[in-house]
Amino acid sequence: MPGVMDIKRKIKSVKNTQKITKAMKMVSAARMRKAEEAMTNARAYANKIYELVGGIADRVEADSHPLLVARKEVKNVCLAIITSDKGLCGAFNSNVVKKTLAFARENQDKNIKLICIGKKSYDFLGKKEFEVLEKYVSFGGKITYDEANEIGDKLVAYFLSEDVDEVHIVHNEFKSTAFQVAKVTKVLPLVLEKQEAVADTTDYIYEPQAEALLKEIMPRYINFTVFFSILESIAGEHGSRMVAMDNAARNAGEVITKLTLTFNKARQSAITNEILDIVNGAEALNG
Known about the structure:
about 290 residues; alpha/beta; Helix Hairpins; Pyruvate Kinase, Chain: A, domain 1; elongated
């Protein structure tokens, strides 16, 4: 059995760790609320711009915009991998990496190229056999629309230059504080679901023409898709870290309880031995 002082030092060390995990939990909870609010505010715009682009796309030819045209043969596929810059957030990053590797296995006949958004995606995948086109590793859990525009413009540029034939985003979809799902979303060529039929069948007159309007809106739609995906990922990161730190604090509490019990046993054993030594010494003197 370890000595009393050794156990006491371990208890102190675990208590210090527990303080850190509790503090990180509180910080992540505060950041998650802000990130979730930003994501919620952006969702209304995301739904509206999707509805707008879908409505216009229904009224034009499929080949009226190069971002709508599917390539006859898909050889090069670009994956925009969205992870966090920091760790200590459970399986948040590893789930995205696993999803990426699974996609690569399913498409072994294609050349996979990566755009890494977040330090962890580059750390995990940058040294593998994939070609990394771009890396963005300094967001630190924050993103502005202009920064997302830069990434979206890169995706569009690679597609239009035919360096890649398809573009997908791999990220965690935010379901709840404790639940995120890694998913692959096809971005380019853009495939829009047909708008559901509604009672109002009014045919609108567009100024400028629908084709010109679609050409103007499509890049913005792609940019906002990237922006919203990153917002979802940031909210999920803080939620996952909050849960992970809560679990770590609970585990630390259990370890402290077990170490305290071991400490009490060791101390009781030491006291018993001292009493026995005193009794034996007294008996020896009496003898």
